[in-house]
Amino acid sequence: MFPACENDLAEVQKVIEQGATGREVAYDVELLYSDSAIVRVRVKAPLMYRYLDNNNPRAEFPEGVRVDFYSNSGQTEGYLTSKYAIRFDDLQQVNVRDSVVWQNQRDERLESEELTWDERSRQVSTKKVVKFTRPDEVIFG
Fold this sequence. Notes:
The chain is mainly β.
């Protein structure tokens, strides 16, 4: 005897159409993003929620992130930290907020309460106040 279960196909389709959601949880996360087999970005976070929502798949980092950016030669070019981050898969958009700091190797530093990275246009934007610091000047915007 083999036990089996049976699912009503109409019920399964209904769940799919409604955008079934689930959540994966991961601790001490390290994500590597590469281009042509060269690591370009490393994301580290103590906690990540991966929402498996058909209508809005996303990865949330409720305890913050550190993102390191690398050059072609593998040298660190800069980093970004924030106390909260979320990436929306379908929008190809990343939002970081709460004590956002971006720093590069030229001692340039950007601070804000929120930044949005649009992966398609490759642009960063915000409607919040920013402080941009260079070794010889400080700019507010």
